[in-house]
Design a protein that fits this description.
Layout lengths: L1 H7 L7 E4 L2 E8 L3 E5 L5 E5 L2 H4 L2 E3 L7 E9 L5 H14 L9 H5 L6 E7 L4 E9 L2 H22 L15
Antiparallel strand pairs: 1-2, 1-5, 2-3, 3-4, 6-8, 7-8
């Protein structure tokens, strides 16, 4: 399996991958291993034998665009449509967000930003929005910015993000 990485060359330098729980940009590939540089500038050595024995995520194999989700829990008293409007506005206005739709999806009227209710939990209604960026680096920056912007928008509009609460009764 060691030679398969060198012969088939499923990766190249500067590709972004996740292998065995580690994510990073490939800095070096040789007969025994490839070396990733993670977001904290650490070097992670991944044995080539993992290529055949564990799933790998290759972020820019054929397309560098990156679709990730934002997920929030909102209170059961919150207006779901209003939360969707706020999320769509903040995501759509961000300069790192791109339109990830195909031409066919655009023609059929698919919205640029998809939002859905995905769960009705014990403390919150879980809502999710899908955002697109040109690559993984922009995607993570977009994600962090949007967490702040959407939380601030929810605060301005009085939309609560609940947290679990428990009432304990002590017996005497």
């Amino acid at each position: 399996m060691n030679s398969i990485v060198v012969i088939i060359k499923p990766f190249k330098l500067r590709d972004l991958i996740t292998a065995d729980g580690f994510s990073g940009t490939i800095e070096d590939i040789n007969l025994r291993q490839f070396i990733l540089r993670d977001t904290e500038n650490n070097r992670v050595v991944i044995p080539n034998s993992l290529v055949g024995s564990t799933p790998l995520i290759h972020f820019n194999h054929t397309d560098t665009r990156c679709c990730k989700t934002l997920e929030f829990g909102i209170s059961y008293t919150a207006n779901i449509d209003k939360t969707f409007e706020l999320m769509i506005a903040d995501i759509g206005a961000h300069p790192l967000h791109i339109d990830g739709r195909t031409q066919q999806q655009i023609n059929t009227g698919m919205p640029k930003v998809i939002t859905k209710v995905v769960a009705l939990g014990a403390s919150a209604i879980t809502i999710k929005a899908w955002k697109w960026a040109k690559d993984a680096s922009d995607s993570i920056n977009l994600y962090y910015d949007l967490l702040k912007f959407i939380k601030e928008a929810f605060d301005r509009e009085g939309i609560d993000i609940p947290f679990p609460q428990r009432t304990l009764h002590y017996a005497k």
